[in-house]
């Protein structure tokens, strides 16, 4: 995947099942059977990653909800989204 900008819109892939348990979001890739766990903020990011919001917009929501600097959140968010994209859990919404 190319480098993401603050205007990138990513959305969850349809072949991913989500289950929540004890504050952890568990994702199962139905194509290959791999699973992944997202704690706390990561689970919230997953919910917000619906293809309609840019990375910058998601960072602004998280900054407000978690009372943290938007710049820090945007940097961490870009790293998380790169990881999720590399694991084929999300894709760019054109």
Write the layout of secondary structure elements.
Blueprint: E1 9-12, E2 16-21, E3 24-29, E4 35-39, H1 41-48, E5 50-54, H2 55-66, H3 70-86, E6 90-92
Antiparallel strand pairs: 1-5, 1-6, 2-3, 3-4
Helix pairs in contact: 2-3
Give an overview of the whole structure.
Helix content is 39%, strand content 31%. The protein is α+β, with helices and mostly antiparallel strands. The chain has a single domain (14-86), classed as Arc Repressor Mutant, subunit A. A three-stranded antiparallel β-sheet has the order 5-1-6. A hairpin with a 2-residue loop joins strand 2 (16-21) and strand 3 (24-29). It is globular, with a radius of gyration of 13 Å. It starts with 8 loop residues before the first strand and ends with a strand.
How many E-type strands? 6
Q: What spatial order of strands do you see in the largest sheet?
A: 5-1-6
Give the end-to-end Cα distance, rounded to a whole number of Å: 13 Å
* Nearest-integer average pLDDT: 90
Strand-and-helix sequence, N→C?
Answer: EEEEHEHHE
Radius of gyration: 13 Å
What name goes with the CATH superfamily? Coenzyme PQQ synthesis protein D (PqqD)
Low-confidence stretches: none
Share of helix among residues? 25-40%
- Major sheet size, sense and barrel closure: 3 strands, antiparallel
In the CATH hierarchy, what is the class? Answer: Mainly Alpha
> Which term fits the overall shape?
globular
Percent of residues in beta strands? 25-35%
The CATH topology assignment is Arc Repressor Mutant, subunit A
User: What's the structural domain tally?
Assistant: 1
How many distinct helices?
Answer: 3
Which CATH architecture? Orthogonal Bundle
